[in-house]
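Please, structure for the following, as tokens.
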Amino acid sequence: MEGFPPAHCRMVESAVDGDDAFVVLDTGPAGRPYLYAGTVHRDAAGWHGGIDGNGGAVGWTITDAERDLGVVAIWDEAPPGADAARIRRGDEECEIPIRHGVYLATWWREPFPEDGPWPAAVAFRVGGRWVDAAEA
């Protein structure tokens, strides 16, 4: 969060795996989200920024250069009123909560998925019913 004005930088979602984390920040003014996310790593001095970028995304970010492993992550704004997202990656499907209007799903210690599968948001729960992501 260093370098961002405190009034315009709020952590809205995170996923932690040991000393690694993936963090989604909202760096926009109140009521106008502007998402910025990336990896961070913890050592004895605390948390330190890694690789980051803006806008919603799906991708892989290296977290262990020695073993060429990283985190696969999907994150973005959710439709208004949604309280959960259904994410599919290959044959795997998971339901994740939406916090502060944002969803985040991660898979840690993964090699780069050259041939996939890449995760995708396939549905959102809005008003107690699941809505296809293309319709949300």
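The chain has a mean pLDDT of 90. The chain has one domain: 6-132.
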